[in-house]
């Protein structure tokens, strides 16, 4: 017979699931203690703010101040630099807890913050600028974010065709145009990705830069969306800002390594935790309702109907699978990095997380798919009452909808996994560099001899045109 452990929140008003349904065995004693403090902070500060944030499109600045008060902005920063020195499992736990008990918008802004912090820690060893920044995160409530998505390439955020950087006498001149950036205009610092200063047409040659708030132009007044309304993911422009040499994060051309080793693994881990937290938050809200609402005609509570019990059983089982899968990836990353020890990256060739990217893709797909289904079913379990705003479940449903569409989108992820499994990883061709000979020959087969001759002629002319600048010096030096 199962004994009931203490409720997550002792307050009567919580009414959600007990700790019996949480994988607490994955956490160290100090991580459990941190979780308890965070749940308390969520109940007192983050959750009340979440309601106002959603209604009035308010950026969760106050929630970030609360997180900084218990050291969470420096969660991943080594203890010798004043941080909590925590690991991947803990990062997933913190994001899940914020989304579940506090505010999903804050959880997403915090996910982007952790991604930016990790990108900075990855290349901070010989960089005094990054080290100084990383040591003042909590003291100054210095919020970071990642600015990658490009207006011309949509969810292919690894392909920044509208951005570039040039070398100057003192450092770099950065041009970044982003279509989406969480916390845009509110964050204090940004990791942005552009093509490298010596870019020659190869879009896999990417570099990262540290840009401060005073150097960006954002349009937060334009933000209005279905869910995650506090996360303010607007456009971002860095319009030829000149920055010192130390503000390049890592060496020139490090962007691909940074994506595969840090930005993707951390985003996929923490955003999955965010979707799982939203799913659990919806279950908590619905449990409170169905165990209290009575039908006097039959003398039953809603929770007494087997149909409703089945809804909860399936929602908890599916979400437990997603949570265990996500935490398992956190454990894997911890194993690969000696518990998230950043000193391993003093060797710039050390990229232990990257080899398992195809596993991290899968957790985001599962968590983002599950959250929409679970929130939908929990709303059904609450009936018309769930449809009203005061119960908050409709907000969780709207917030959870962001999971599927956030890049890498679930369409892209299942395509990556299926295609790489069938045709090999090289077939993914992120930067549109390898020719699909099968398609090419199949299309050529459809052409008449005359069509082929015309095509050959056009191709020859294009080649001559492409080679022309070398012969005509007057054209050289033209910049985009
Ligand atoms: C709440 C929120 C916060 C965000 N925050 C950030 C942030 O902080 N930083 C950042 O850089 N970006 C951020 N983004 C942007 C996000 O990562 C995506 O880039 C963005 O959602 C893509 O939107 P789009 O309209 O350009 O989609 P499109 O790319 O136009 O996609 C439209 C449809 O086409 C599908 N599709 C696209 N390519 C393929 C393909 N190859 N195969 C099959 N289907 C395909 C998509 O899955 C989708 O269904 C955020 C997005 C949201 C919703």
CATH class: Mainly Alpha
Uncertain spans, ≥5 residues at pLDDT below 50? 1-6, 472-480
Separation of termini?
71 Å
CATH superfamily: Butyryl-CoA Dehydrogenase, subunit A, domain 3
- The proportion of strand residues reads 5-15%
Radius of gyration: 25 Å
Bound molecules: flavin-adenine dinucleotide
DSSP E strands, number: 10
Helical content class? 40-55%
User: DSSP helix count?
Assistant: 14
Shape annotation: globular
Reported for the largest beta sheet, the result is:
4 strands, mixed
Brief digest:
This protein is an alpha+beta fold and 480 residues long.
Produce the secondary structure layout.
Blueprint lengths: L28 H28 L4 H9 L18 H15 L1 H19 L5 H7 L9 E4 L16 E4 L3 E11 L7 E7 L10 E7 L4 E2 L15 E11 L3 E2 L5 H36 L3 E2 L4 E2 L4 H31 L20 H26 L1 H4 L5 H8 L1 H4 L4 H14 L13 H9 L3 H23 L9
Helix pairs in contact: 1-2, 1-3, 3-4, 3-6, 3-7, 4-6, 6-7, 6-8, 6-10, 7-8, 8-10, 8-12
The structure holds flavin-adenine dinucleotide (FAD).
Flavin-adenine dinucleotide (FAD) binds next to β1, β3, α11 and α12.
Model description:
It is a single chain. It is built from 14 helices and 10 strands. By secondary structure, it is α+β, with helices and mostly antiparallel strands. The protein has one domain (15-432): Butyryl-CoA Dehydrogenase, subunit A, domain 3 (Up-down Bundle). The strands form 3 sheets. Strands 1-4-5-8 form a 4-stranded mixed sheet. It has a 4-stranded antiparallel sheet with strand order 2-3-7-6, with no helix packed on it. A hairpin with a 3-residue loop joins strand 2 and strand 3. The structure holds flavin-adenine dinucleotide (FAD).
């Amino acid at each position: 017979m199962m004994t009931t452990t203490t409720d997550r929140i002792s307050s009567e008003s919580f009414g959600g699931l007990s700790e019996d349904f949480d994988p607490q065995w994955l956490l160290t004693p100090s991580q459990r203690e941190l979780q308890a403090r965070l749940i308390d902070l969520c109940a007192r500060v983050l959750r009340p703010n979440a309601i106002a944030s959603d209604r009035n499109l308010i950026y969760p600045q106050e929630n970030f101040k609360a997180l900084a008060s218990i050291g969470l902005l420096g969660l991943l920063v080594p203890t010798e630099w004043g941080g909590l020195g925590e690991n991947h499992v803990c990062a997933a736990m913190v994001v899940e807890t914020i989304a579940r008990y506090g505010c999903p918008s804050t959880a997403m802004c915090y996910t982007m913050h952790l991604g930016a912090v990790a990108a900075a820690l990855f290349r901070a060893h010989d960089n005094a600028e990054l080290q100084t920044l990383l040591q003042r995160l909590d003291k100054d409530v210095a919020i970071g974010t990642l600015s990658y998505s490009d207006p011309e390439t949509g969810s292919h955020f690894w392909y920044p065709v509208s951005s570039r950087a040039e070398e100057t006498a003192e450092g770099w001149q950065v041009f970044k145009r982003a279509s989406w950036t969480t916390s845009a205009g509110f964050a204090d610092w940004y990791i942005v990705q552009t093509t490298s200063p010596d870019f020659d047409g190869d879009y896999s040659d990417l570099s990262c830069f540290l840009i401060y708030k005073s150097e960006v132009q954002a349009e937060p007044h334009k933000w209005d969306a279905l869910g995650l309304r506090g996360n303010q993911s607007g456009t971002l422009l860095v319009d030829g800002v000149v920055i010192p040499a130390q503000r390049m994060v890592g060496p020139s051309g490090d962007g691909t390594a940074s994506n595969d080793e840090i930005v993707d693994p951390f985003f996929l881990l923490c955003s999955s935790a965010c979707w799982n937290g939203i799913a659990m938050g919806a279950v908590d809200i619905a449990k409170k309702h169905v165990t209290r609402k009575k039908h006097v005609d039959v003398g039953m509570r809603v929770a007494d109907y087997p149909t409703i019990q089945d809804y909860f059983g399936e929602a908890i089982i599916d979400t437990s699978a997603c949570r265990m899968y996500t935490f398992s990836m956190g454990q894997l990353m911890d194993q690969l990095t000696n518990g998230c020890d950043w000193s391993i990256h003093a060797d710039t060739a050390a990229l232990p997380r990257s080899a398992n990217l195809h596993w991290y893709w899968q957790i985001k797909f599962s968590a983002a798919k599950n959250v929409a289904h679970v929130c939908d079913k929990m709303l059904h379990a609450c009936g018309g009452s769930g449809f009203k705003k005061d119960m908050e479940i409709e907000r969780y449903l709207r917030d959870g909808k962001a999971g599927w569409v956030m890049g890498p989108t679930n369409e892209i992820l299942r395509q990556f996994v299926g295609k790489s499994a069938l045709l090999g990883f090289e077939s993914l061709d992120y930067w549109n560099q390898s020719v699909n000979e099968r398609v090419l020959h199949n299309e050529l087969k459809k052409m008449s001899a005359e069509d082929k001759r015309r095509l050959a002629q056009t191709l020859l002319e294009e080649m001559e045109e492409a080679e022309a600048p070398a012969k005509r010096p007057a054209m050289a030096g033209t910049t985009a």
